[in-house]
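stuck on this one:
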Amino acid sequence: MKFVLVALTAFFFSASLVAAENDTSLGWRSLPFIRHVSVTRDPLYQQQQQLLELYYRSSAEQQPIPGLTLFRYEVRSDDTVFSLASKFNLPYDTLATLNGWAGPDSVHSGETILVPSQPGLFINLSRPGEIDRLMASWRKSQAPREKLHLPSPAGTVSVVFFPGQRFHPIQRAFFLGILFRFPLPHAILTSPFGMRANPFTGKPDFHPGIDLAAPTGTDVFAARDGRVIEAGYDSVLGNHVCIQHDGHYETVYGHLSAIGVTVNQEVHAGAVIGQVGSTGESTGPHLHFEILLKGKPIDPAPLLPMAMAKL
């Protein structure tokens, strides 16, 4: 089924998305602007709600789904991802993926956002973020949808739209900032987080991360998008990398045989940042992996639910 932007009236949206590619601001300015979230005060808000109701009715009756229409709205000071979703009766993941929000803290007062006439997920092809890459990998086996060219203040953005779809639980956890990717393709958990006998002294000691045994040279992946803030040698951690992430998180990767990134480098989740080794205070080839929240180590296991369940 083909999904295209349709006009409510010629006044509301006369510029096509193809035309927007020639004048990157024309399509954006032509989108209908909702000023009041009230069916009695703003006919455009009423139109958006009517189109949303039409979508749900058509979907329930297995009738052809109407075309997608976009509106604009200016974020108020008290708006959040979740309050906006409530205002427009849309899933928050619909608004998040359409507007490129990386997490709940991405919404800012005074910015103009896009509001669609139906729920679904938008995968950004022009400027993909971590969520876009995760959604794309999860939907490789699904039937392809029509590619859309959406207007934005910065120019035309190409997306793939999956009508009616929601975040998978793993994608939701990424968006909410409570999940990290597993840092190795495969591994054996040899030491958990918390108190343990120090392998060198035999005395009780606090272990601020987890140890994952893997062959020397195994690629080590960044657990989330972020910026490298340390990359060097330490007498305990040996060759190690520390990455800073949104939400006051940091991840540490220790005992590497080789480091593949530099300080201040921006990395994507899944990017190779080094290889497993046994440098520093190490009894054999493994990765020492830590997650810190506001500078304090926390147990990585609950934040790696799928991978940890397999170890």
Helices lie at 17-22, 26-30, 43-60, 81-88, 92-99, 130-138, 169-175, 305-310.
